[in-house]
Amino acid sequence: MAADATQYFALSSPFAMKRGGALTGARVAYETWGTLNAARDNAVLILTGLSPGAHAAANAVDPSPGWWEEMLGPGKPIDSNRWFVICVNSLGSCKGSTGPASIDPTTGKVYKLTFPELALEDAANAAFELVRGLGIERLACLLGNSMGGMSALGYLLLHPGSVRAHISISTAPQAQPFAIAIRSLQREAIRLDPNWNEGNYDAAHYPETGMSIARKLGVITYRSAMEWVGRFARIRLDHDQREDEPFGAEFAVESYLVGHAKKFVRSFDPNCYLYLSRASDWFDIAEYDPQPHGHGHVAAALARIDVERALVIGVSTDILFPLSQQQEIADGLRVAGANVDFVPLDSPQGHDAFLVDIPRFGAAIARFLAKL
Amino acid sequence: MAADATQYFALSSPFAMKRGGALTGARVAYETWGTLNAARDNAVLILTGLSPGAHAAANAVDPSPGWWEEMLGPGKPIDSNRWFVICVNSLGSCKGSTGPASIDPTTGKVYKLTFPELALEDAANAAFELVRGLGIERLACLLGNSMGGMSALGYLLLHPGSVRAHISISTAPQAQPFAIAIRSLQREAIRLDPNWNEGNYDAAHYPETGMSIARKLGVITYRSAMEWVGRFARIRLDHDQREDEPFGAEFAVESYLVGHAKKFVRSFDPNCYLYLSRASDWFDIAEYDPQPHGHGHVAAALARIDVERALVIGVSTDILFPLSQQQEIADGLRVAGANVDFVPLDSPQGHDAFLVDIPRFGAAIARFLAKL
Question: How far is B249 from chain A (nearest CA, A)?
Fold first, then answer.
């Protein structure tokens, strides 16, 4: 078994939360690749989507493959021979950072639903403290994908001047109603599972059904119909692979969903999932419009962001974070004065393309980083 | 309260089912508008989507509005002053036709899961018997939308020469994996509800949770992200409208889903839903390829269909029955020798557009029918 490369950074205590309340003795988990140079100006910070931990790729301590293995490492698109790369597990997650599944040091019990309301800005602030704690005044690049891209926009707005270049991947400046509807239904599936029990489950009474439905719905919306036509078509399972129950799985695509759900259900804490999912719905940079007339405007908020260069990548088959939202970010950052590369991709894999279409995404990222 | 305009037609008994078994004393429910002319050549048959009943529009007996009220009636796009219009409730449904919620006359008990496996071809054959029973040798037009469009393709393949013109709306020549995945998850939500109890629920122990999740997922995939940006944006519920529970509904779009689910949950039988949903997954006209080399081909099956004219309508924002599948139907019917109008629409409402974008759909249908 590989050694654990996770490091931990203690956040300020109390750590004030955006929507009220504060955490005592909280921490974030992170991993690093490469070496911080003497000028401390070669740091790249990665903020992740909802489910990954900090182990984005193999490193010296933990050579097991990470969730972005082909993207990050020596000679790879995010080249750790040049960059000092940090990947942080989001505050509120269960992969080492403090979240609803952690012990509340003030009570000695697991937070569960006593964890304060979580906003992605809290995750951004925690990541910012880590970066400062590592002695880095200004990131060479802040990269965020999916939920992490939202956190990254929060980071940029809350900490102006702290980032030189930005890479925004398949994310949103605000949650749109379709994405809210999907996430709301995922949360509902968990909440309605009697084993969720208002957050008071344990390993023996675990909301497995709710988590499974939530994950399957996630996988459906993370990929694309087009990809699946080519991949699964109408292939049926062999009879001995089928579930021996009424209306059980019969098609290969159903079995694929079952496989994904099984991997996820016990590896991600349900309460953490609920907190992070809701935080994504709440996210809306229009709140940072300096002159909100009634409702704020996304464009006005984006116009406040101070980065020299940006790379904005989106995928035409992404139904959860549509290309129109990536265009919106690119346009806004241009108005803000950044030199922006907007790269709309035709990857067939939908929202998840950044995880699997490494040829397209890697090329765009390598090209951008080479210019810095 | 309006009188019930539903009429019933007794199917042949036994009524043989495609996948085996037979129904005894089965019937289909239907309604009609207009008058069958002396030549019996002005009949239009409508095959519906999964959930509607036969009451497509107000008529003399039942003036209450139907599910396609603006489309059908005197002077409307499907003009009952000219056409004798029949709308039939699908075999296997619970809106008057025989299905899993009906009494099995051979046992005196509700079928539940003893209902034989249902295919959409069974629904097509039942509709065909009704048409013949009404003394109609050849339909002027067979119209099917969504699931009903699949049944209509089955009807055309199984009963060649029985239809002069065809209108195909937002449907599929075969279920694709994305649609299968969505429907599989809907079925799973019902099946995993302990109250489903392998089909043995009653009003007091009813799979309300599962049905609610299934319906919400349906509504999400029946509409489009684009429509919802304009309709709901990030509008929040007033505080007194919010659910007083952790992670309860907060956004208008969530409340919209709740409203749809509430209307549906008790008005559609869960077992019927499961049967019709699975029948949709099974549907694949490639089975009718006369020379199936390994797998049959959709195009080869479509090429066998014998109609003079066809109108094929699809919507670019439909994620469940994508425009590419409507194009496939149009192309195939052209190869078959039909004079085909293919009308791709930019309606923002997604799959449900045919129910709500009456200006666009009505114009296309009226134009087509005027040519017959």
Answer: 8
Domain end: B241, B256, B277, which one? B277
Distance (Å) from the alpha carbon of A36 to chain B's nearest alpha carbon: 41
A36 confidence band (pLDDT: 50, 70, 90): very high
Q: Are B324 and B311 in contact (CB under 8 A)?
A: no
What is the set of active-site residues of A?
146, 318, 351
Report residue A316 as tokens.
């035409």
Instruction: Quote the pTM value.
Output: 0.96
Q: How far apart are CA B343 and CA B315, in angstroms?
A: 9
Match 């557009």 to its residue by tokens: B353
Note whether B94 and B52 are same-domain residues: yes
Q: Please indicate whether, in this complex, the C-beta atoms of B234 and A174 are within 8 angstroms of each other.
A: yes
What CATH number does the domain containing B242 carry?
1.10.1740.110
Residues B113 and B154 in one domain: yes
Answer yes or no: B284 catalytic.
no
CA distance B143 to chain A (A): 26
Minimal CA–CA distance to A129: which of A222, A36, A212, A30?
A: A30
Q: Which of B51, B90, B102, B146 is catalytic?
A: B146
Question: CB distance A253–B180 less than 8 Å?
Answer: yes
Q: Do A178 and B224 touch (CB under 8 A)?
A: yes
Shared-domain flag, residues B152 and B23? yes
DSSP B349: T
pLDDT per position as a tens digit, B45-85: 999 999 999 999 999 899 999 999 999 999 999 999 999 99
Among candidates A213, A216, A233 on the partner chain, residue whose Cβ is nearest the Cβ of B177: A233
Write down the ipTM of this complex. 0.95
**Do residues A224 and A328 both lie within one domain?**
no
Q: What's the structural domain count of chain A?
A: 2
Q: What is the pLDDT of residues A139-150, one digit of tens each?
A: 999 999 999 999
Say yes or no: B225 and B338 in one domain: no
Which residues on A lie below 8 Å from B178 (Cβ)? 220, 224-225, 228-229
**Is B2 inside any structural domain?**
no
- A1 belongs to a structural domain: no
Q: Are strands B22-23 and B15-16 parallel, antiparallel or unpaired?
A: antiparallel
Task: Please list every residue in chain A whose beta carbon sits closer than 8 Å to the beta carbon of residue B180.
Answer: 234, 251, 253-254
In a domain? residue B124: yes
Is residue A235 domain-resident?
Answer: yes
From the candidates B178, B216, B280, B298, which should be mutated to test the interface with A, based on the most A CB atoms within 10 A? B178
The reply to whether residue A246 touches residue B185, judged by beta carbons under 8 angstroms, is: no
Shared-domain flag, residues B351 and B240: no
Q: Which domain holds residue A349?
A: 7-175+284-371
Q: Based on the domain organization, do B85 and B169 belong to the same domain?
A: yes
Phi, psi of A67 (to 5 degrees): -75, -15
Residue B23 and residue B94 share a domain: yes
Which H or E element spans position B300?
helix B298-302
- Of A146, A50, A131, nearest to A86 by C-alpha is A131
Identify which of A179, A182, A187 has the shortest CB distance to residue B247.
Answer: A187
Query: How far is B288 from A153, CA to CA, in rounded Å?
Result: 53
A234, A259, A277 - which closes a domain:
A277
The minimal CB distance from A281 to the residues B224, B228, B251 is found for B251
Between CA B99 and CA B183 the distance in angstroms is 19
